[in-house]
Amino acid sequence: MCGIVGAIAERNVVNILLEGLKRLEYRGYDSAGVALVDADQKLHRVRRIGKVQELQNALAESPLKGSIGIAHTRWATHGGVTDKNAHPHFSSEQIAVVHNGIIENYQSLREILRSDGYDFQSETDTETIAHTIHKEMKQAESLLDAVCKSVKQFHGAYGTVVMDKNDPETLVVARSGSPLVIGLGIGENFIASDQLALLPVTRRFIFLEEGDVAEITRTSVRILDKNGEEVERQIHDSEIEHDAGDKAGYRHYMLKEIYEQPIVVRNALQGRLNSEGLLPGIYGDDADMILQKVRHVQIVACGTSYHAGMTARYWLEQYANVSCNVEIASEFRYRKSFVHDNSLLITISQSGETADTLAALRLAKELGYMSSLTVCNVPGSSLVRESDLSFMTKAGAEIGVASTKAFTTQLTALLMLTLKLGQCNGMSKEQANAIVNALNTLPAKLEATLNLDKEIGQLAEEFADKHHALFLGRGDQYPIAMEGALKLKEISYIHAEAYASGELKHGPLALIDDEMPVIVVAPNNELLEKLKSNVEEVRARGGIMYVFADKDANFESDATMRVINIPHVDEIVAPIVYTLPLQLLSYYVAVIKGTDVDQPRNLAKSVTVE
Ligand code: F6R
Question: Which pick of 83, 227, 340, 602 has the fewest CB atoms within 10 Å?
């Protein structure tokens, strides 16, 4: 989704802005732009549809220089993908604005501004921000004052950075619903929608809070909170351990991230679990008191994170004896739901900024949930800051838009939580030991599963000319089948559906023919015999199957079925292990089809609008 970078320095900031935009490319976008004020106080702008590279080429042909500037990657919401709709937007060649989010009342603001004599050059909601601020400047004491007066008129979500060519010493930023982080340098300061954009220039960050407006100069940062009171916000040293902005020799970030899974899962376990069990204090100081009281869990998430939540429901009810509901955040937030006694709201999110998940958390607070916990990958993100408890997944920055290592570390974290809640709820020692052992052997099992890479790469050839695929699983493998289908459609654009295989005869069997590959996840568990009956139902109708199965499950390859043997693994962690071959399958199908694996069309990494 849209990305923002801003800089104010003594040096030329063009390359800082471009490098920042490149680092935000993974979020998904369709156009990019930059605006600068030069030494003669002239405002310049270059915008291009397509990749940041197009913008960079344009700037190489006609270089710009300036020590204050703002830049943006746009993911179209209001108005098509055109140069004119790309940010920054100007008002009266004086005010320049970049914006993430949506101004919901932009139509009525447009009418007011038109009657005040403002012309609109774009179809965007963002241009109303620029004109409103310009209008307020006429009576304001400063740019900060004008922005404070303007934001009161906006409904919706915004993270915005504003530059005034008449005041080239100041950037003003405002946050409501869309994240912004200030990067602190020495004699220079920066702003971005994601700290990753600024890692080459600083590792010291201030995360703006909801409703904050800040004035940033080269040497100072002044922050006003939502009540207009001046506040100090804590400075954080970035916890991002390594700079993820490099592919480490892999062809795509997605492949690199698939291969990182044994390591990041080990990281997620380290310092939290040893051979005896969970270490004390891993959920924070007051957590045990809260977790002891939990009698119900409500999980809320979107997309891949939702699939992690669905898997956790099987674990929580089976092993921890805690009742659990799971819901897509965009549904949860707009319906009246029942709040169980002693209910813990769990949000799951890679980014920690997903608009619907954040709204669901805020709603849960109003509804009176006992407490909230987020399972999240980004320290300092909105979900982490606004939840009572947080548990970091420690996957490291995930750049590929299609989530891989974020998912398996979410599952790892959720299985640890199952253990914790189970132990608070009378879980037997044998059960606890079984989970501890399964988790401790997990990184090695993931490593062994990656050895299937070549075989799966060959298998992918058979999918490249297909238009549809069906994924089947039962029990805790059903959400894994759903995740497999999501991965395939996201990056290869093949239409894929997942079904709990017991549902086959209730409709989807009608789809089976030799043009519809059926992918089956079949670990050796108590549902195996049931699953085998479902496989026979498909075979009887001429279906072609690809079965990812434990050796002991005794499937044999034949003319209609290809069996891919997965290393034997404890059934508790099988959902995590069986995810990897499905990720590899999607990856290789996408590579064969020649799609943009890391930035699939129409998708964004961090969905900060509804
Ligand atoms: C799919 C994918 C998305 C995200 C979803 C939620 O590969 O990445 O479905 O899982 O947009 O995002 P987070 O986890 O950041 O809340």
Answer: 227
Atom from ligand 1 closest to the CA of residue 402: 7
Structure tokens at 217: 């100069």
- The mean pLDDT value for 522-539 works out to 87
Q: Tell how far the Cα of 349 is from the centroid of ligand 1, in angstroms.
A: 7
Task: DSSP letter for 370, please.
Answer: S
Neighbours of 250 (CB within 10 A): 14
State the average pLDDT over residues 561-577: 96
CB 400, CB 409: distance < 8 Å: no
Structure token digits, residue 31: 């156009």
- Residues 273-296: tens digit of each pLDDT: 999 999 999 998 889 999 999 999
Six-digit token pair at 309? 């939540």
C-alpha span between 204 and 535 (Å, rounded): 55
Mean pLDDT, the chain, rounded, equals: 94
On whether the pTM is more than 0.85, the answer is: no
426, exposed or middle or buried, with CB in 10 Å at 0-12, 13-18, 19+?
Answer: exposed
Summarize pLDDT for 165-179 with one digit per residue, the tens.
999 999 999 999 888
Cβ–ligand 1 contact at 403 (below 6 Å): yes
User: Which 3 state secondary structure label does DSSP give 34?
Assistant: strand
